[in-house]
Amino acid sequence: MQSNAPEDLAACLDPQWPVPHPIEQHLGYQLRRIVTLLSAHIDRQVEPLGLTDAQWKPLLRLLLDQTGTVAALARICQLDAGGMTRLLDRLETKGLVRRERSLEDRRVVNIELTDEGRTAAQQLPDMLQGMQRSLLQGFSAEEEAQLRGFLGRLYANAQALEPGSAPGGPDS
Does 84 map to a domain? Predict the structure, then answer.
């Protein structure tokens, strides 16, 4: 891959050379700022349930998807096995989930919500919906649809950046 970067500082001062944007204008930086604000907001929203931003996700997945195994839940929540184990340890200590080794396959650990966990998880969809309404305030239905389309394309482009992704990604 050839670089079209100028070889000396004088060339960088050429008005034809693109000026780098301040970091605040970089897409990754902007997305990260939004995620940070949302995480802090969710932490405040789920605190009365005794949860953190990280802990609500597996509870909601268990409620909606009835995922079943620790391995499947880790994949869906995009955590490695160790991270999921630590997260489930905390949720189990709080009495929100229960783990049991499978009788058919001792390597498999099944997971389910306790009654207390189900009660907490059932409150999450309304909280998240309210946050989404606030976040999209001022957007028309058409703008929201466009935004979702743009985000889907960004996600697909980001996936194509992963090693071993199929050819035809954004850099092809």
Answer: yes
Average pLDDT over residues 1-10: 51
**Four-residue CA torsion sign, 143, 144, 145, 147:** positive
Radius of gyration for the alpha carbons in the chain, expressed in angstroms and rounded: 22
67 vs 88, residue with greater confidence: 88
Q: Would residue 66 be called left, alpha or beta, if left means φ above 0 and alpha means ψ between -120 and 50 degrees?
A: left
Average confidence (pLDDT) over 160-172: 68
Angstrom distance (rounded) from CA 56 to CA 81:
17
CA 56, CA 121: separation in Å to the nearest integer?
7
Partners of residue 97 on adjacent β-strands = 113
Domain boundaries, position 110? 53-125
What pTM did the predictor assign? 0.72
